[in-house]
Write a sequence for this structure.
């Protein structure tokens, strides 16, 4: 009984220490977090684009590694687009209000990207001829979302 009480007290104490970061999941943090994810996606996508264009020598191992890194990054992207974090409310973002007016459409663009990245991971190590068209398809999935949901 006493032991259980002690456990309960310990859990409440732990919850109290955990509360501040949970509360800190506000729009400013969401914007910073999603920009970080998107910038890191661009970091890994950049060399793949350069290889596809022939500006960087094709390297199967490096291509496969960047594709795999890219795959892990956007997993939680839609979650970072929380309410009240659009260009209508903030000046540190290019996320247009239409994201929240049409969240299903936004998630569809996101899922299309995930599909293209899966294919990219599958073919990245199979030579320049396999990589290049899939880099284009992936880039188009980035652009399709930006066209509608990101301010210029
Ligand atoms: C589902 C929609 C969607 C997809 C798909 C998408 N993006 Fe974006 N991206 C956005 C939005 C919305 C913003 C604006 C975010 C903000 O300013 O809060 C953005 C912003 C960015 C930024 C600027 C971040 C900053 O620091 O301001 C980069 C870089 C970027 N995206 C790269 C990419 C790349 C590379 C891909 C494809 C591999 C991609 N995005 C796919 C929606 C998307």
């Amino acid at each position: 009984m006493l032991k259980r009480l002690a456990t309960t007290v310990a859990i409440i104490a732990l919850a109290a220490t955990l509360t501040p970061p949970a509360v800190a999941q506000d729009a400013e943090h969401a914007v910073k977090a999603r920009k970080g994810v998107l910038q890191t996606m661009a970091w890994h996508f950049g060399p793949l684009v350069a290889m596809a264009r022939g500006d960087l020598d094709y390297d199967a191992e490096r291509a496969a590694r960047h594709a795999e890194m890219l795959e892990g990054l956007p997993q939680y992207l839609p979650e970072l687009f929380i309410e009240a974090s659009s260009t209508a409310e903030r000046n540190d973002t290019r996320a247009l209000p239409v994201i929240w007016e049409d969240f299903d459409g936004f998630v569809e663009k996101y899922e299309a990207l995930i599909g293209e990245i899966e294919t990219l991971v599958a073919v990245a190590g199979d030579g320049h001829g396999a990589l290049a068209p899939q880099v284009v398809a992936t880039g188009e999935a980035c652009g399709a979302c930006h066209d509608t949901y990101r301010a210029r």
User: Anything to note?
Assistant: Residues 31, 34-35, 38-39, 41-42, 45, 93-95, 106, 109-110, 113, 138, 141-142, 145-146, 149-150 surround heme C (CB under 6 Å). The mean pLDDT is 91. The radius of gyration is 20 Å.
